[in-house]
Specification:
Shape: globular
Helix content: 10-25%
Structural class: alpha+beta
Strand content: 35-45%
């Protein structure tokens, strides 16, 4: 009994199936690539040419505030009000349009919407430029301080209208959260001028944290 026609037919079906699978996979890959790149600038922006504001001292470096650039947490699913420039860690970096720009300080953390069933506020963050590394950083809205007396940590928070978000007594470190709409750099300067505070610096995320 001759099985050659059946073998040829089966082989032909396998080939057609393989071609269809590869084509489908390739198409899905292109679609995902387009979705991932949609709305994001392909070329790294020249942040040094962007409008600049005040300077912020942190991490032993001088950062320059980018007046119309903001950072929005990706997980918030809130549509940014402007041109998307790049992804940085868990943040979407975008440039605000003039019609959407807030009257608040560019150095503040701003509430831009609500998210989730519980209606938690979504915050956009100021973005700064490091002229030394030519990288941008996200102003996280927290200030890291060193205190001479950790028992005064809560008292200091109340004095400056801040929230004591974390403290490490053995290290003499207290971290304060700056309320939305408040100028992070100004708050840091106010803490630095407080005799109870040895040092104060805004928390700036410049280098992405990667799992080891």
């Amino acid at each position: 009994m001759n099985h050659a026609p059946r073998v040829i037919l089966a082989t032909g079906c396998l080939i057609l199936f393989a071609v269809a699978f590869v084509s489908s996979t390739h198409g899905q890959g292109l679609a995902q690539t387009r979705r991932g790149q949609g709305g994001v600038a392909q070329k790294k922006p020249d942040y040094a040419s962007f409008p600049q504001g005040n300077t912020i001292l942190a991490n032993g470096r001088t950062y320059i505030v980018l007046s119309d650039v903001r950072a929005l947490p990706i997980e918030s699913n809130v549509e940014p009000a402007g041109e998307i420039l790049q992804l940085k860690g868990q943040f979407l970096i975008y440039r605000e349009t003039r019609s959407e720009m807030k009257s608040l300080s560019a150095q503040s953390v701003q509430e831009v919407g609500m998210a989730g069933i519980a209606g938690q506020p979504v915050l956009s963050h100021a973005v700064v430029y490091n002229p030394h590394t030519h990288q941008i950083g996200v102003v996280m809205g927290s200030i890291v301080t060193h205190l001479a007396n950790m028992t005064q940590a809560q008292e200091i928070a109340a004095s400056h209208g801040l929230v004591l978000s974390a403290h490490y007594d053995q290290l003499g470190v207290a971290i304060y959260a700056v309320p939305a709409g408040e100028d992070v750099a100004a708050m840091s300067s106010a803490l630095q001028a407080d005799s109870r505070v040895a040092s104060a610096e805004p928390e700036i995320l410049e280098h992405e944290r990667r799992p080891s």
